[in-house]
Design brief:
The complex is a heterodimer of chains A (about 150) and B (about 525).
Chain A lengths: L9 E2 L7 H14 L6 H14 L3 E2 L3 E2 L2 E4 L6 E11 L8 E10 L5 H13 L2 H9 L3 H12 L3
Parallel strand pairs in A: 1-5, 3-6, 4-6
Antiparallel strand pairs in A: 2-3, 5-6
Chain B lengths: L1 E7 L6 H16 L2 E6 L10 H6 L2 E6 L14 E3 L2 H6 L1 H14 L6 H8 L15 H34 L3 H6 E4 L2 E5 L12 H24 L1 H14 L4 H13 L3 H20 L5 H4 L2 H40 L4 H15 L3 H20 L3 H25 L6 H15 L7 H6 L1 H22 L19 H24 L2 H14 L5
Parallel strand pairs in B: 1-2, 1-3, 3-4
Antiparallel strand pairs in B: 5-6
Helix pairs in contact in B: 1-4, 5-11, 6-8, 6-9, 6-17, 9-10, 9-11, 10-11, 10-13, 11-13, 13-15, 14-15, 14-16, 14-19, 15-16, 16-17, 16-19, 16-20, 19-20
Classes of the chains: A alpha/beta (about 150), B mainly alpha (about 525).
Chain lengths: ~150, ~525
């Protein structure tokens, strides 16, 4: 299956005014890669999820995500935001933003991968490796290796 | 300590798993074992029974209704919501530890009290508490949800027996005189099944319709045992099943009906729950679940049902029949109303039986000697038809108040009510006794009184809509039934709506728990 994340879905130095902006920039990457068919439709789905409960996670993580019919393949957009962007976490702004895009239907295989990703996110070592990575390709390779294997 | 946890979140792809990982890692850091069942989009791998049995406490970090919550019944728990587990797993674990430590120690008076009427054993750190009423309702619903298919199977089989066999099918099976022909009893007791070679006699005398009818009776006989057994199962898990089912069977046999079954289910659950938490020497522990608990709990529930429930019920039933005989010379409309109240009160229990036997007994005399017996029979049958019909109507017009299972039972209730199978309403009455039973009683009383006022006469002891040709003034008779049906439905909708948001929430939650899409 298609890799969850590739180098072109990684933004090393994202500058964003707020979480909607950060999400839009990452979603644009997914759209450019042909993984999201309708950018605005997808963003609406993400916003709907975000409205239920803020996705700012402890440890400086923003985790906007949605299962959306505008998504063709399960995908992960990843941005390092050195200046930080507020995702509503109680312990401060997010410096890492993961945008998870999952197709609406489909089997559970890709959901298992996303589950594995979510579990990695709470481990400090996982976050640190991403922050220390030298370039987009190595970020993508590391994340893909951690969660998907293949 | 050992904990089991359930995590879930609205999308089921992020928080569910982050919370799980957090709880597992934090547990490891603090020297506790936490096993998590992630009820997320990637499918749920259920925790094994052994793991659950070994756990000291339960952590619910779930924003959706926990699936299979009955598995964790009786264990100390905290209910925190998924967000807290993501952001502050240490606090969640601390609360869980406190909940276990504050839980009543097995073998103490508090533990016994907790088993009988468990108070919410949540720690103060929890954000959502589960009240006694909610727990009680969950136990009742567990029993009811397992009982509903039996109601449908048994009720429809009996209705088919009437449809193909006519009202005489009852006489052909259980003996008696019908239109000048005297039949022998070939099917044993009403609750039983023909033994040995008896099938041939059933087939010869009552035909295939008779077979359908007795099959329905057997399924029906299981209603109360299944109700009682799974209420106990909801409270105490597997050890509750034996005393629960045996207690329910006894409720049947002593004529205590489904209300007796509620008593036996709750009592059996409490006994089993208490016994599983007794601290016993290691040598005995191995035989506790397979020998000691089933044996002792069955003896206790048996004694309770025979001496505390059975004897008074039997005495009350005969006293009631005498009382009704005394009334039959008086005001006919009042008698009709009283019979209606009795028919709907316990739907197969002692009051219902007393009213029915009083009417059926009077019928035989009235057919040969005249008198009000025919009217009384008509009133009793009509009053027994309105509870299921009223519930069917209520589920049809206000779908949101009921769970999916209840709505389906409501559909079956049209047929069951029309066939004078009052038991169709039992699942509703068992789940919401204080709302459903009064509604049914008022509707049935109105119908009973109206039938007596109209003076309808009925010459058969059973059959519902299938014996309409035998009823005098059938249009007025149907009107009386319709009035009771509408009254019952209207009342139950009002009562259920009093706490509407909560009722809907619970109904929805139960649908989710049973995997029914909303």
């Amino acid at each position: 299956m298609t890799d969850l994340i590739t180098a072109e879905l990684v933004v090393l130095d994202l500058v964003a005014t707020d979480k909607a902006d950060a999400t839009r920039q990452l979603a644009q990457k997914l759209a450019d890669a042909g993984r999201v068919t309708d950018l605005d439709g997808f963003l609406a789905d993400v916003a709907a999820r975000e409205a239920q409960m803020a996705t700012g996670m402890p440890g400086g993580i923003g985790l906007p995500h949605a299962r959306s019919e505008h998504v063709t393949v399960p995908s992960l957009g990843l941005a390092r935001v050195p200046a930080g962007v507020d995702f509503g976490a109680p312990d401060g702004p997010a410096t890492l933003v993961f945008l998870i895009a999952a197709p609406a239907g489909g089997g559970s295989e890709h959901l298992t991968i996303l589950a594995a990703l979510a579990r990695r996110l709470v481990r400090p070592a996982f976050r640190q490796t991403i922050i220390d990575a030298p370039d987009a390709a190595s970020v993508a390779k590391y994340v893909q290796g951690e969660v998907g294997g293949q | 300590m050992k904990f089991v946890a359930v995590t879930s979140c609205p999308t089921g792809i992020a928080h569910t798993y982050m919370a799980a990982e957090n709880l597992e890692q934090t547990g490891k850091d603090l020297g506790h074992e936490v096993q998590v069942e992630t009820q997320g989009s990637a499918g749920t791998v259920p925790l094994s029974d052994d793991i659950i049995a070994a756990a000291d406490g339960v952590i619910y970090a779930a924003d959706l209704e926990v699936k299979g919550k009955a598995r964790f019944a009786g264990k100390p728990f905290v209910d925190v919501g998924v967000k807290k587990a993501v952001h502050d797993p240490k606090a969640v674990l601390a609360a869980a530890i406190a909940a276990v430590e504050n839980a009543p120690k097995a073998g103490t008076a508090e533990a016994a009290a907790a088993a009988a009427a468990p108070a919410p054993r949540t720690a103060s750190a929890s954000t959502r508490k589960v009240g006694v009423g909610t727990r009680l309702r969950q136990w009742l619903m567990t029993g009811v949800s397992y009982m509903i298919p039996f109601v449908a199977a048994g009720g429809i089989l009996i209705a088919l027996g009437f449809l193909f066999g006519g009202e005489e099918v009852v006489y052909k099976l259980y003996g008696g005189e019908f239109e000048g022909v005297t039949y022998e009893n070939v099917a044993g007791t009403v609750a039983g099944f023909p033994a040995g070679g008896g099938f041939d006699a059933v087939l010869a005398q009552a035909g295939f319709a008779g077979i359908l009818f007795v099959l329905g009776q057997v399924a029906f006989f299981m209603l109360v045992p299944i109700l009682s057994g799974f209420i106990a199962f909801g409270i105490a898990d597997r050890p509750g099943l034996v005393p629960g089912i045996v207690g329910g069977m006894l409720a049947n046999l002593v004529g205590a009906g489904f209300l007796g079954g509620l008593v036996s289910g709750l009592a059996a659950g409490a006994i089993a729950y208490y016994m599983t938490r007794l601290k016993v020497p290691k040598g005995v522990r191995g035989v506790m679940p397979v020998v000691v608990i089933p044996l002792v709990s069955t003896i206790l529930i048996g004694l309770l049902m025979i001496f505390v429930v059975g004897k008074p019920v039997a005495a009350a039933q005969s006293a009631l029949e005498d009382w009704l005989s005394g009334l039959s010379g008086g005001n006919a409309v009042l008698l009709g109303a009283i019979l209606g109240l009795m028919m709907a009160f316990d739907m197969g229990g002692p009051l219902n039986k007393a009213a029915y036997l009083f009417a059926a007994g009077g019928l035989t005399i009235a057919i040969t000697e005249g008198g009000p017996g025919l009217q009384i029979m008509a009133a009793v049958m009509a009053a027994g038809m309105t509870p299921p019909l009223g519930m069917a109507l209520a589920t049809a017009v206000r779908k949101k108040l009921w769970t999916e299972a209840e709505r389906e039972n409501g559909l079956a209730c049209w047929l069951l009510g029309a066939s004078f199978i009052t038991e169709g309403a039992i699942p509703f009455a068992a789940a919401h006794p204080l709302r459903v039973i009064p509604s049914c009683m008022v509707g049935s009383a109105a119908t009973g009184a109206l039938v007596m006022a109209f003076g309808n006469e009925l010459r058969a002891p059973h059959g519902g809509i299938f014996v309409l040709p035998l009823i005098s003034n059938p249009i007025l008779y149907l009107l009386a039934i319709a009035v009771g049906m509408v009254i019952t439905a209207a009342l139950v909708i009002v009562l259920m709506s009093l706490d509407k948001s909560k009722t809907e929430e619970i109904a929805h939650a139960e649908d989710v728990a049973e995997g029914v899409p909303a």
